[in-house]
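User: what does the whole thing look like in 3D?
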Amino acid sequence: MAEGLRERKKRETRQRISDIATGLFLEHGFVTVTIAEVAEAADVSVNTVYNYFPAKEDLFFDRSAGVVEQLSRWVRARDEGESAARAVLRELRAEVEAVSPRIGLMAGYDRFMRVIHEAPPLRSRLWSLQQEIHDHLEATLREEAGAPDGDPLPGLIAGQLSWCHQTVFVTVGREMLKGRNPDEVSREVLVLLDDIEELLSEKVLNYAVRGAQ
Amino acid sequence: MAEGLRERKKRETRQRISDIATGLFLEHGFVTVTIAEVAEAADVSVNTVYNYFPAKEDLFFDRSAGVVEQLSRWVRARDEGESAARAVLRELRAEVEAVSPRIGLMAGYDRFMRVIHEAPPLRSRLWSLQQEIHDHLEATLREEAGAPDGDPLPGLIAGQLSWCHQTVFVTVGREMLKGRNPDEVSREVLVLLDDIEELLSEKVLNYAVRGAQ
DNA sequence: CTTAAATTTTGCAATGACCCCAAAGTTTAA
DNA sequence: TTAAACTTTGGGGTCATTGCAAAATTTAAG
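Assistant: Here's the predicted 3D structure for the full assembly of 426 residues, as structure tokens:
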């Protein structure tokens, strides 16, 4: 389990590059900061940056690792007698109610959002993330519901659940971008979550109940 | 209303560039074909290509103009006593049943899909289109339902309806990409549409009924 | 401690999208 | 016929991204 010098240095270098890059992006925007500037500020060569990050956008979204599996984890961890949708809604409510920075409810998130808002490549990358979340969730639901291969239902339910997830994130992002207060936004989004739940059909709300069948 | 020589030439040049570009992309893929090659094949300078198309992706999606307003048009044209959702489902069924090339049910669409599938920038552009469709629809629904400014419902319903739309398009695209037969896919997607409708709540299905209130 | 192998960093060169500007060519309208 | 309006083009530049081989660093073997 001991970590060699080489491993530690790699991890440190990667972290340093990511941190410095994010700082520069928050300061000057995504498009205006060049990879060369990031490299210089991190005191490495441009090629080293590319050694760790396949594309410029990855420098910005580095910390968002684990987001892709989040929804799937929530579904897998649902309680006895609880459906996938109920679990997702419960976890979303918990995050919002806790004013969790994980969903953007924190001071300074507006600066983060502004960078994304002004950079088409970053918005693209976010959509790509959404897609990954959806696909991951679809696979999870197929498993958890024991659905046969041709069954379109897991895909459809995944669509509905990632829509819930996405709506919450987009709303939080939009409101924080306006410079709103996290606590205020939290309250509003809790109401929004009720609206969302009311729009889901029973079929969605009762899919993949743990223990059923 | 007479069209001058200048206008005609511009339109022709634009069309020629777009056609030749699409041909080259279908033949060799999006990434491998350079703008310079397109320009040369269309017998214009690289700068002229950029005069007409802001980005390389626009060369490929040129013909898809009008898709953004499609959903909104369907909603606006809904029948007396019909809700927004019912109108959208009805129109989608009509398109699918008619094996319409407008939604990709045509021979050769697999080549089109393959190009998109293999080119991340094209997929990004598609998501961007989806986003535009959603936002456009949200504005339309807000108007048609006479919803007040703070009301989140138009946005939520827009999310559900563009999800229906998107699901149909994605499914058609995926199946056609496999080399399936348009008529077969049409039949399957009609069934899928039934599944989709069953997943929509009454609230969604009854939003913005023409004539109500 | 020394050295060869494995791994990481770097420099260099290229490709291609995209932008800016000014010159040259074309079309319109007076 | 000609000046104004508009389009095309050439040239030059920035920057993301890639490939390659040399140089530096770390590890492990002796």
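In plain terms: Residues 4-6, 9, 34-36, 46-47, 50, 54-56 of chain A lie near DNA strand D (CB under 10 Å from a C1'). DSSP finds eleven helices and no strands in chain A.
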